[in-house]
Write a structure and sequence with these properties.
Distance between the termini: 55 Å
CATH architecture of the largest domain: Orthogonal Bundle
Largest sheet: 4 strands, antiparallel
Number of helices: 4
Length: about 190
């Protein structure tokens, strides 16, 4: 019976960690005033009729904090890459010189920074809701074990462990949110 509780808690932990990983990836896409190749993660390029992630058709680099350099593996891909960046509506204006595409990352205005902080807070709240939902599922599963003869003191211990793990993940979320907020607001 205790194996069932351990399995339930491990499953909950894995789901919560998946939510945290997703949260961190989403926040990495949000620019904080300096160039980052992850800003272009959502860009899909028409590669011979197939929508392909930009990173699979070109090499991406950031030589300095204000620009991203895109080096296509095939020169014929320059125009489709440029078109895809424009279509992604990221607020970038790609420039090409026939060899590479240069994306200059414009400085963020105070208003735009505040909007990004709002977006980051919304993302954090969604992840907290997901974490709490995982807690609810685990607690329901543990309470259902009472019907199959699990001692009540074991159920209380398991619920305390579930709450402790939930609190840890909520705290991680808050710390990452605080870090990202500081990063966005720093000029």
């Amino acid at each position: 019976m205790l194996d069932e509780i351990s399995l339930c808690i491990e499953t909950m932990k894995e789901s919560m960690q998946d939510s945290m990983n997703f949260f961190e990836k989403e926040l990495d896409k949000i620019r904080a005033g300096k160039a980052n190749v992850k800003m272009l993660d959502g860009v899909k390029v028409d590669y011979y009729g197939t929508l392909t992630p930009l990173a699979q058709v070109a090499s991406l680099s950031t030589p300095d904090p204000k620009q991203i350099i895109i080096q296509p593996w095939e020169k014929s891909m320059i125009a489709p890459i440029e078109k895809a960046i424009m279509a992604a509506n990221l607020g970038f204006n790609p420039q090409n010189n026939g060899e590479i595409i240069r994306v200059i990352v414009p400085a963020l205005t105070e208003e735009r920074r505040k909007d990004l902080v709002k977006k980051v807070k919304q993302e954090a709240e969604q992840i907290k809701v997901a974490i709490r939902n995982e807690r609810r599922v685990a607690n329901t599963t543990i309470k259902d074990m009472k019907d199959s003869g699990m001692p009540e003191d074991e159920i209380k211990k398991a619920e305390a462990v579930v709450q402790k793990i939930t609190d840890e993940f909520i705290e991680k979320t808050d710390k990452y949110l605080e870090f990202k907020e500081k990063e966005i607001m720093t000029i």
